[in-house]
Amino acid sequence: MIVTEGLAKVFKIGKKGKEEIVAVDSLSLSVKEGEAFGFLGPNGAGKTTTVRMLTGLIAPTRGRASVNGLELGKENRAIRKCVGILTESPGMYERLSAEKNLSIFASLYDVEDVPGQARKFLQMLGLWGRRQDPVGSFSKGMRQKLAIARALLHDPKVLFMDEPTSGLDPEAAKMVRDFIESLKARGRTIFICTHNLDEADRLCDRIGIIKQRLIAVDTPAALRQRLYGRKVVFHLRELNSKWVKVVSALPFVKEVRAIGEKLVLSLENPDRDNPEIVRCLVKAGADIQFVGELRHSLEEIYLETLRDIEDER
Amino acid sequence: MMIKHIQTIIDKEWAEVFKNRMVLFTIIFMPMIFTILPLVMLYVMGEAVGDMNGGAADVPQAFLATCGDLSGGECMQIYLVNEFLILFMLIPVIIPVTIAAYSIVGEKTTHTLEPLLATPISTVELLAGKSLAAAIPAILVSWLSFGIFLLALPLIGISRGVRAYIGGPIWLLGVLVAGPLMAVASVNFALYISSRVNDPRVAEQISMVIMVPILGLLFAQLAGLIVISVGVMLIIILLLALIDVGMIYLGVRIFQRETILTRWK
To answer: Dihedral of the CA atoms B122, B123, B128, B134 (nearest 10)?
Structure first.
């Protein structure tokens, strides 16, 4: 659905445009149809620039890309017809009503039934009762909902969302997240730029971490495994040094750490190896209270990945 | 090019603009002044020059030829009221500037430009919509003002000869042809400025520069350096038409979506 090959964007700055800023460099990725792809990166990493390139708003300096089979640069107008974009700032005509705002964009997207489509989304997002009110009187959450409606008016094949829950209160953010999940469930291809790592973890099938270049791309689970492997925590009534020796002797245990009353083991395949470890520990006299897998947050993965890149540089 | 897209932009611009009291004030108040002022002046002068046979003594020689069989007093009236022709031509310049100058930079500051440019609208459609939205009300208001002015002339006792001159080819060409052409030029200039700056106030101030050549024409006429005859008016129209074509062509070429979206300094 989205394919990029060596995509790059260099901005010329300074009085004579002699200085250059590389916003995005050698970006190659592929997003499948129906996939929710999370694009993570610090401020200024090139996320918004990438979205702008992929929606035909700005031209890449190098590289190629296609969206929904349409070639970027040659078929930009066709690309804009089949993608929806939720910009970082909702950007609405504040003096106009919610319904008027949607009608304008529905007409520009050549939607056949403009009033019908506007009504559908206003009702879907709970804004029908305020349809005649000027958007200037709306809360931030309501504006964001309206911006989402605007992005979906023409039933786009691909939806680009730049910080969809940024600045929203928890309730509004949850509503937006639930709505994105419902879109995902309906098979919509979604490309989400976000700083909210928990959100990316919950919503996205795969995640790309960018800092000008694409640093890592995979499913959240695969990224966890790649960085940390799989770790299992055995909570014991009390810790005895001999139990450390017992589990260290097992061939499939890669690393053992004793923390308080807990044993943290790095394993290749916990599903296969856990029963054997439990048996060994019980046989050695350990009282196991419970066993659980240590799950690193996406935030840890993200920060670790960025740290590695800084070290390399 | 899709007419529907242009209509949508016009509809959107008007819906926004006519909810702005300052713009409404400019659209209504300024043409009102420009209509009432010459009427008052003609009325006052009509009484003053009623008995003057030598009223044309202060009229430049070059202008006397345009008076034909009119009396000296009537010639003087025409000479003075002719200055207001330029003001009527200024109406379709000033009004669209206040609308068009805000047009692009306003969308930029309210963050609506990016979603707008992300739609399938083409640059030509966008600029045509914005230009027409600014120019049409200005042209209609200037024509309406001129119509009211013409209708009010007999009411203040203006002679048939002076009325015939004001309803003649020079004024008609000026108001009905040169005015709209000036509106097109000023709109395109204001849109160009609006797409290059980041502050609506700066856009409006710079865009007002478009009035300088017109004021130059006014002062040249006042100083007797130029007499607007049918021939001069046709030359002005031809020049304006050429300027318009050039400005529309340049406007579309210069409107760079990428630069507008990414340049903030």
So the answer is: 120
Yes or no, beta carbons of A96 and B16 under 8 Å apart: yes
d(C-alpha B95, C-alpha B31), whole Å = 9
The pTM is what?
A: 0.80
In sequence order, what are the beta bridge partners of B41?
none
CA distance A43 to A193: 11
Relative to beta strand A189-194, strand A36-40 is parallel
Residues from chain B that touch A107, judged by Cβ atoms under 8 A, are: 4-5, 8
Token pair recorded at residue B149: 């002015």
**Which chain B residues are Cβ-neighbours of A108 within 8 angstroms?**
5, 8, 116, 119-121
CA distance B23 to chain A (A): 14
Q: Least CA distance to B13: which residue of chain A?
A: A93
Angstrom distance (rounded) from CA A86 to CA A48: 11
Strands (E), A176-275: 189-194, 206-211, 213-218, 230-236, 253-259, 262-267
Looking at the DSSP assignment, which residues form a beta bridge with residue A209?
A: A40, A216
Is 90 exceeded by the pLDDT of residue A109?
yes
pLDDT digits (tens, 9 = 90+) for A145-162: 899 999 999 989 899 999
pLDDT digits (tens, 9 = 90+) for B212-255: 888 888 888 777 788 888 888 999 999 999 999 998 888 888 88
SS3 A295: coil
Q: Please answer yes or no on whether A58 and B115 come within 8 Å at the CB atom.
A: no
Give chain A's domains with CATH numbers.
2-218 (3.40.50.300), 225-298 (3.30.70.100)
Q: Which chain A residues are Cβ-neighbours of B122 within 8 angstroms?
A: 77
Give the pLDDT confidence score for residue B58 in this predicted structure.
Answer: 67
Per-residue confidence at B49, pLDDT binned at 50, 70, 90? low
Q: Using CA atoms, how far apart are residues A25 and A60, in angstroms rounded to an integer?
A: 10
d(CA A86, CA B254): 27
A172-227 pLDDT tens trace: 788 888 888 888 888 889 999 987 777 888 889 999 988 888 888 888 878 777 76
Q: Is B114 within 8 Å of A85 when comparing Cβ atoms?
A: yes
Kind of pairing between the strands at A158-162 and A189-194: parallel
